[in-house]
Amino acid sequence: MRWIFFVFSSLTLSGCETIPQQHEREQRQARAGLEAALDSATAKCRSDWETDARLAPIRDKIPLVISTASFVQLNDIGKPNEVEKNAIVALDEVKQACNQSIYALRARIWPPERSALMQQYLSDARSILGTLWNGSMTYGQYITESNKQLNAYIYSDEKLARGLLDEYKRAEAQEQQARAARMQAWSQYIEATKAQPMQIQTPQPKQTYQTSCNSWTPGQVDCTTR
Q1: Tens of pLDDT along 144-201?
Q2: Rounded to whole angstroms, how far apart are CA atoms 104 and 107?
Q3: CA separation for the pair 44, 101 (Å, rounded)
Q4: How many helices (H) and strands (E) does the chain have?
Q5: Which long-range contacts (CB under 8 A, 24 or more apart) does 35-38 make?
Q6: Do 36 and 29 contact (CB within 8 A), yes or no?
Q7: How far is it, in rounded angstroms, from Cα 70 to Cα 61?
Q8: Is residue 71 within 8 Å of 9, Cβ to Cβ?
Q9: Given CB 3.0 to 4.6 Å as the disulfide criterion, which of 56, 57, 60, 175 pairs with 87?
């Protein structure tokens, strides 16, 4: 399960078939490597959450995965005290490092639109955490607002991904039509070439000339060309 701070949609864009097959194969390999790197980064984020002693005062108040908050956590009307505020500052530090590592990995294959949407989500999530830290929000309100924000992000990301996928499909259909038109034009050219009789020109023999000169009279030369 992905950590609360980097929940992402499972909807990903497949490679576009218009690119060379070698490039497409490399893209598949890159995505496989990316998933392994994401798993490793996720494990580190989870480990940091569970082992960082600075976060101990708030572990029972903020769940590891925000969507799995308990009934008690959702209805917690308490606000952070000074000790807990220090823990929230540490939590922000841990989240920032974790989120940026995940973002850097995702941005390798995501289109700019999805990367920008994710960056905005992370920024908004940090703002909500700041509202909890400054005492303007209870723990229960923080969890509720975070859940709303997360669901809105997932919805927007999936909608954006579907729209981008539709664009790829339309572009692919247009490219296929263009390829078919080029193939048809080439076939017509070949058939037209076959229909024309082949004309072979026989080279004409090259005419040669010979010039002979005689001197029968002193001081005079007579030349004849045949």
Answers
A1: 999 999 999 999 999 988 876 666 666 666 676 677 777 777 777 777 777 666 665 6
A2: 5
A3: 10
A4: 5, 2
A5: 37/105, 38/102, 38/105, 38/106
A6: no
A7: 9
A8: no
A9: 57
